[in-house]
Design the sequence.
């Protein structure tokens, strides 16, 4: 399912956060939400598709970054920023930071993760 979210620089965007206690369970595992993060400036029709006509190896399914969200059975929400590997090696051209009541800072700043390693942060 493709539901475009188009934030502007500095804008906050609410994301779906499935609850492990109340949402679909597959193979005894809770469902989380995964979001492709495309490079800036791509219009919806070029970014929210499986095969982008303008950036086939860096947009849509091949977007540089994924964001994952989920509310665990313990009531804690987990939010992750991670590279879209092995599907894509594209690099994101802007920064992302999770801001809120968090235990650990998680950000992607100038291509480097804060609060994690080369595989992302939670």
Sequence:
């Amino acid at each position: 399912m493709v539901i475009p979210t188009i934030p502007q620089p500095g804008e906050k965007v609410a994301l779906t956060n499935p609850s492990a206690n109340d949402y679909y369970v597959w193979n005894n595992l809770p469902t989380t939400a995964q979001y492709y993060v495309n490079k800036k400036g791509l219009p919806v029709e070029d970014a929210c598709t499986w095969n982008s006509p303008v950036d086939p190896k860096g947009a849509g399914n091949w977007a540089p970054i994924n964001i994952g969200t989920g509310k665990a059975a313990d009531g804690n929400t987990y939010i992750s920023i991670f590279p879209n590997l092995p599907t894509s090696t594209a690099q994101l051209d802007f920064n992302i930071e999770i801001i809120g009541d968090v235990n650990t800072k998680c950000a992607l700043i100038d291509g480097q993760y804060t609060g994690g390693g080369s595989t992302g942060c939670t």
